[in-house]
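SAMPLE LOG
Freezer: B-3
Tube label: C17
Construct: single chain, 157 aa
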Amino acid sequence: MATPDFIRTIRADAGHQLMWLPGVTAIVFDDEGRVLLGRRSDNGKWSVIGGIPDPGEQPAACAVREVFEETAVTCVVERVVLVEALEPVTYPNGDTCQFMDTTLRCRAVGGEARVNDDESLEVGWFAMDQLPDLHEFGLFRIKQAMAEEQPTWFDRS
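STRUCTURE (predicted):
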């Protein structure tokens, strides 16, 4: 995920210290029940779509924007899937962040899936029985998004 300009500005003063940031993950399904994934340019791995909201941007608006920016697919948000504080991560440059992830189930309503920015090497639709190798982060979110009657998931510990 590319670092937004507003975070670069904060980092100029904050240095590498831990920053608490919002994150949004979009689990996008098409009418055939396939899920939209992107192969990231930073690590070459397949992943669900996500990003950081701009200041004042609502999570649903962020999800729609990120999906379009990365894949050229237009989507609508259907519901909140989960809300979870993630473990801190330290990037190769020394920056440390901890994200509060809001995952949203989305439905594609237009566009053709393609690489639409420099954050992805490939994008595509995948049937549930043909998913590429995915990190548990993405697999868990896809599973939660597929459960039609399941309420929003929260870590209750």
